[in-house]
Amino acid sequence: MCALRQIPEAPLTSPFPNPPSWPIPRPAPAGTAPRLAWLFDIDGTLLLTEGASRQAFSGALRERLGVDDDLAGIAFAGRTEPLILADILARIGRRFEDGDEARFWDAVFAQMRMLLHPGRGLLMPGVPAILDAIDQEPQWVSGLLTGNMTRMAEIKLARFQLEHRFAFGAFGQEAVDRNALARVAVERVRTAYGVPPSRCIVVGDTEHDIACARAAGARVVAVATGSVPRAVLAEHAPDMLFDDLGEFGALLEWAREVARGV
Questions:
Q1: Distance CA 193, CA 213 (A)
Q2: Closest to 115 (Cα-Cα) out of 66, 60, 168
Q3: Spatial separation of the C-alpha atoms in residues 73 and 88, rounded to whole Å
Q4: Which of 76, 70, 73, 75 is nearest to 55 (CA)?
Q5: Pick from 251, 193, 177, 182: which is nearest to 35 by CA?
């Protein structure tokens, strides 16, 4: 597998008029310092793109490298996008020259904006409602823990008007390894808010989300809304396991206990 350089995303104009202040956490209002942080995965947890992500990479591969490949067999779920790209390059036996990687990512983002049009994609049950419930708790804060590159995350969230619902994030370009990325996220929370890993709750839909939460010392909630069956998620022993986020009363009660240090 060829090694990928970790580079910043190309400085394109954001497609959003007021892009979120990611990845730096926004300060909490005076007297409301958070005691609990939620770290949400995106794909399979908050939403589905109905294959648009795979198609976006495939389209960029054709556009930038002249390779026709539908990327069947390349694992996407629960993995960082730089790691996905490394697998793609290894499969086709190619590597980037200077500057080519940034242009490739630009092509992926452009493809995604075109593919994830109104009418495509699904918002998972209960997502706006649970985000509203978290917002109503003055000492809770919600962020993102996703393998998506920052701009890809923005594109996906904007499709469902969720791009301004999160105070901070940890994104794929910050660590290829998902466990290392989770440690970036919890350290960001600790530095910004003084919230320890034990009061961070990772919410995800794959065994990788469960593993990365454990590696970072965080709590973890699994939802069977992605490609991993509930029985498989249960084998990895998350703290809480749900079919989806639609019935979240028990989840919020458990989260209040976590916030109290129970």
A1: 18
A2: 60
A3: 10
A4: 70
A5: 193
**200: helix, coil or strand?**
strand
Contact, 61 vs 69, CB < 8 A?
A: yes
Half-sphere exposure of 232 (CA within 13 A, CB side): 12
Phi, psi (deg, nearest 5) at residue 212: -70, -35
Closest CA relative to residue 180, chosen from 188, 22, 236: 188
Residue 142 backbone phi and psi in degrees, to 5: -115, 140
Give the percent of the chain with pLDDT over 70: 89
Environment class of 223 (CB within 10 Å of its CB; exposed 0-12, middle 13-18, buried 19+): buried
Q: What single-letter DSSP state applies at residue 189? A: H
HSE (CB half, 13 Å, CA atoms) of 27? 3
Mean pLDDT rounded to a whole number for the chain: 90
What whole-number distance in Å separates Cα of residue 39 and Cα of residue 17?
25
Cα–Cα distance, 169 to 142 (Å, whole number): 9
Residue 196 exposed, middle or buried by CB count within 10 Å (0-12, 13-18, 19+): middle
CA proximity to 51, closest of 107, 115, 114, 110:
115
Position 154 scores a pLDDT of 95
To the nearest 10 degrees (0 to 180), the angle between helices 150-158 and 100-115 is: 10
Residues 159-210 pLDDT 10s = 999 999 999 999 999 999 999 999 999 999 999 999 999 999 999 999 999 9
Give the model confidence (pLDDT) of 72-125 as tens digits.
Answer: 999 998 899 999 999 999 999 999 988 899 999 999 999 999 999 999 999 999
